[in-house]
């Protein structure tokens, strides 16, 4: 069974400035993938499990899609194993 397509992603295009730090709060093993933005932090829930970097990969894909950017333009700078992460946009 294929994963359902994500709908209603917030427009995070304003975060696509070179060198922009993006604080992210991650919830792994969620019921569904979703992205929300409260003005300071991006909240991302992913269905992926937090082992072998699977959740981090899912977060990068979702964040890049919401930003309208390539996943390779995002670099995880802080929080490799924690729920609070900092990504840097570097095209």
UniProtKB/TrEMBL annotation:
InterPro entries: DUF167, YggU-like_sf. Gene3D superfamilies: YggU-like. Belongs to the UPF0235 family. This is UPF0235 protein RUA8715_03207.
């Amino acid at each position: 069974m294929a994963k359902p397509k994500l709908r209603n992603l917030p427009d995070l295009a304003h975060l696509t400035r070179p060198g922009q730090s993006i604080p992210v709060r991650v919830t792994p093993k969620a019921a569904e993938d979703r992205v929300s933005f409260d003005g300071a932090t991006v909240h991302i829930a992913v269905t992926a499990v937090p082992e072998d970097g699977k959740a981090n990969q899912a977060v990068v894909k979702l964040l890049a899609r919401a930003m309208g950017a390539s996943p390779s333009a995002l670099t995880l700078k802080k929080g490799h194993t924690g729920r609070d992460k900092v990504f840097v946009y570097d095209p």
